[in-house]
Design goal:
Blueprint (H helix, E strand, L loop, with lengths): L4 H9 L8 H4 L3 H32 L6 H49 L5
């Protein structure tokens, strides 16, 4: 039976093949947790950064106290450092997790292929 282009689109959108990776990913729970935490911190910091800038602009320049601007500027520097750290750790966890999963899959495929008969 011939496949239609609709079938091909459905297969491209399906996440079912990713289910087969689940046993490999669960071997590295700490890395998955680290990646999720890093992603959450990076996302929250990314969302908070414009709000902090807006508050500094709205309230900082109207205040007669220049320490307000200095405090918010220091806070922005800390937030930028937090964003950089969270993004770097997320990158590390995701890349390392991916490489380990690929290595485990290669090892399992090699182990399976070496058990097959030579006539295969």
């Amino acid at each position: 039976m011939a496949h239609t282009s609709g079938d091909a689109d459905e297969r491209r959108r399906s996440l079912k093949p990713l289910r087969r990776l689940f046993p490999y990913i669960t071997r590295y729970r700490k890395m998955v947790i680290g990646a999720v935490v890093s992603l959450t911190v990076a996302a929250a910091t990314t969302l908070a950064l414009p709000l902090a800038v807006r508050r500094m602009i709205d309230h900082g320049f109207s205040a007669s106290d220049s320490s307000f601007i200095a405090e918010y500027f220091a806070m922005l520097v800390v937030m930028a450092a937090l964003l950089a750290t969270a993004s770097a750790s997320r990158y590390y966890f995701v890349i390392t997790l991916g490489e380990r999963v690929v290595a485990d899959i290669r090892s399992d495929v090699f182990r399976h292929v070496t058990t097959l008969s030579p006539s295969f």
